[in-house]
Amino acid sequence: MTKKIYQWMVDAAAGNNALWILAAIAFIESSFFPIPPDIMLIPMIIAAPKRAWLIAGVATIASVLGGYFGYAIGFYGYDMIARPLLEFYGYVDKFDTFKNYYHEYGAWIVFAAGMTPFPYKVITIASGAVDLNLWVFGLASIAARGGRFFIVAGLLYFCGDSIKTFIEKHFGLLTILFFILLFGSFFLIKYL
Hints:
Blueprint: H1 2-12, H2 18-29, H3 38-47, H4 52-89, H5 92-115, H6 120-129, H7 134-159, H8 161-191
Helix pairs in contact: 2-4, 3-4, 3-7, 4-6, 4-7, 5-6, 5-7, 7-8
């Protein structure tokens, strides 16, 4: 099933409604859909490099809006589904501890998940469940999703088709490298 959806997305990237389909995919991927919008984003930018920034912008806006939908799922579904389960298993106190950590590091958690292949929908729903500040959630989502989509767009725009295979093959490794550099720079600034 997932393979069929993947192929449909790749085929849709060449169609007349590709930008609308990309927006829909980016929206639903942020809350429940299993396949990331990059699968459409990459071939769309390669096919129309002059529209790279528009394509990345549409993916960013739709993904952030979808993130708010995922947040709403977590916020409104917590009392109905998660809380009774936590009470049944006696984990309410542990969840409260997790909630405190999440509030302290929530922006970083949202940012990291939004940039990496980690399922962003898990973080959007968790953010709603713990009632993470909406501004913090939104700004971290914009930075993460925008960073992710605009970095891919920039690489494809400036390097062309040759970078496509490299990005697809090494996306996870590139993301890990990015975070090593990012956190390494924070470490150097803090301790030097």
